[in-house]
Design brief:
The protein is an alpha/beta fold. The chain has twelve helices and eleven strands. It has two domains: 172 residues, Rossmann fold; 191 residues, Up-down Bundle (Dehydroquinate synthase-like, alpha domain), CATH 1.20.1090.10. Bound molecules: glycine (GLY). The site of glycine (GLY) has 5 residues, from loops.
Length: 368
């Protein structure tokens, strides 16, 4: 088991990573239970697979779970579901000093965290992420949001959880494709800031995907450590530090937009392709050797993720893809910051990227 502290003035908290945390009688969850019932938000899948284990954990402290269960998928990150959730929490009499629990993936965490940021001007919440992507990324760092007709994650708040319990045992029921999507965010930490961890991923990526317990726990805890460091340095993404976590996301966003943000391309799969493109584009600009870009592509491909956008069967041009980027929420005063590489393990923010050249580069990648 690893305990990683996210250091934030007045709002520090622990992320606990390990197998079987929900079954552990010493669970740190105990410190956040002050009434006989606690509100728990889950989707139908996380409730089905992990609801009993959480109820048993709460029962040891004489606490019952009061469930709010959503439909699985991004549809739950809507004004309608948020309103229902907030009204429900108020009807339960949730107070500012109470905690609510988010049991599920990134959708459940984002929705619950945003509701918690509003109820009584901000009540506490505990994240129990049950997908690999949520364990290594979205449950840590306090970004919460819903989607609106203008786009994804455009309305939200920074609201830090009080505790994150990342029980790697909950990943045993996760579909294989989602393991791959989560792994993209793991190898990202190596590519953007830790060459030694990248080399470890080159060697051990398939073991993580196969859920070998030691490799999985190591990968999740190293990822959380990296994220905790970055969030502590730049909680609100104002200093070009947290922005590095967007490596692969600008190219990936264009691919997700082109595929309709659908199950045809999961977010993590788009990020994986986006990181290959960011590495190849860094090589095109002369920042890294082409061989390093192909090393990134090979490591990502070894984990079973796609590395060539030509294999997606897209019917668009490079210009079409680059136009999607201009609607990215990362646009800043008319420029789009790109996260590029100075070397594997050293990413930086480039605000001078020529979009015409990006379109030409994407045309070449689409025709490969
Ligand atoms: N997922 C990117 C961030 O938390 O900043």
């Amino acid at each position: 088991m690893a305990v990683i502290r996210v250091e934030l003035a007045g709002r520090s908290y622990d992320v606990v990573v390990g197998k079987g945390l929900l079954d552990n009688p010493q669970t740190p969850l105990a410190g956040y239970l002050r009434k006989q019932e606690i509100a728990v938000v889950a989707d139908r899948n996380s409730h089905q697979f992990h609801g009993e284990a959480l109820e048993a954990a709460l029962d040891r402290f004489g606490v019952g779970a009061n469930w709010f269960i959503t439909e699985p998928g991004e549809g739950a990150k809507s004004w309608e579901v948020l309103e229902k959730l907030v009204e429900w929490l108020l009807s339960l009499g949730v107070e500012r000093g109470d905690h609510i629990i988010a049991l599920g993936g990134g959708v459940v965490g984002d929705l619950t965290g945003f509701a918690a940021s509003m109820v009584k001007r901000g009540c506490g919440f505990v994240q129990i992420p049950t997908t690999l992507l949520a364990q290594v990324d979205s449950s840590v760092g306090g970004k919460t949001a819903i989607n609106t007709s203008a786009g994804k994650n455009l309305v939200g708040a920074f609201h830090q959880p009080s505790l994150v319990l990342a029980d790697t045992g909950t990943l045993s029921t996760l579909p294989a494709r989602e393991m791959g999507a989560g792994y993209a965010e793991i190898i990202k930490y190596g590519i953007l800031g830790d060459a030694a961890f990248f080399a470890w991923c080159e060697e051990n990526g398939p073991k993580v995907i196969d859920r070998e317990p030691e490799a999985l726990e190591y990968a999740v805890s190293e990822s959380v450590k990296a994220k905790a460091r970055i969030v502590a340095e730049d909680e609100r993404e104002t200093a070009d530090r947290r922005a590095l976590l967007n490596l692969g996301h600008t190219f990936g966003h264009a691919l997700e937009a082109e595929t309709g943000f659908s199950a045809n391309l999961l977010h993590g799969e788009a990020v994986a392709l986006g990181m290959v493109l960011a590495a190849r584009y860094s090589a095109r600009l002369g920042y890294i050797p082409a061989s390093d870009a192909e090393r990134v592509a090979k490591a990502i491909g070894n984990a079973g993720l796609q590395t060539e956008i030509s294999s997606l069967g897209l019917k668009c041009t490079g210009h079409g893809l680059s136009s999607h980027m201009m609607h990215d929420k990362k646009m800043d005063a008319g420029t789009l910051p790109f996260i590029l590489l100075r070397s594997i393990g050293d990413a930086f923010v480039d605000r001078q990227v020529d979009m015409g050249d990006v379109a030409a580069f994407l045309d070449e990648e689409l025709r490969k």
